What does this fold into?
Amino acid sequence: MRRRLQKLLDEKVNPMVAQHGGQIDLVDYVNRTAYIRMSGGCQGCSSSKATLSQGVEKAILEAYPRVAQVVDITDHDNGVNPYYTS
It folds into this structure.
């Protein structure tokens, strides 16, 4: 499942967030929960919550209904160069 989730991120999600200098990676998949980390322009971005709920989470849950939730473990307070700032 981990490989399939990362492949989905690489093929469907990351091309979109790469336009803003970002990347999203799967950190782990445990007990039907996908843990992701945002980096680059996504880390610290004021739109990261929308990206998570409307992009990442939606893509994962539609492709893999057995995933119950997606959790962002990114430390957004330490973003170095977010595309958008709040």
